[in-house]
Design goal:
single chain; mainly alpha; 2 domains; 9 helices; flat
Length: about 190
Amino acid sequence: MRKNGMMHIKASRLVRIVVLCFMLFCHSTNVNSESDTNVVEPCSYYEEYSSEEEQQVAKKILEGDVESYKEYKIRGDIKSYYFYAVIMAKKYNYPPAFFDAFEAMTKVYEKYDLNMDTCTWHYAFSYLETGIQLNSWECASALEYLYLRGNDFVSIDTAKAMHYKQLTHRFMKELREKNKKKIGVSFEQ
């Protein structure tokens, strides 16, 4: 009983941190919306506990560096992962980050065995919908899975699942072609 209570307290703290980071991001982008350069600083709790190297990676992510974001994603620090996924998604329109934001939101609830409310679910789901518009195969694959299996918020719909499966394959094919062109260019130089 005590263990579940502690997990609930940790989960609620983590959810509060994620919401606070999101609110800080929204406020910061609204304040700076008149200028061409939006400057968003990492959450102060992150700065207090991270090394100089981690702070440099965070700064690069805030500047839109995709490789730094990928490196950070591999580490899997879920406490601030959502914050950086939202920045890469919303500010830089980086397609995989839309799936990452969805996943970070839903994983927090799963990790602590909490039930997500409808409003939060729709907000998380909107990341997948936006990612689809940017040809994110990760978002298409997630939607395929959701419509194939269903959950408390999504009814099973095999037609939609097949549609998203086709989109997943199309987006992956387009990405492979794009990467082949990049490799071809680098060999010619």
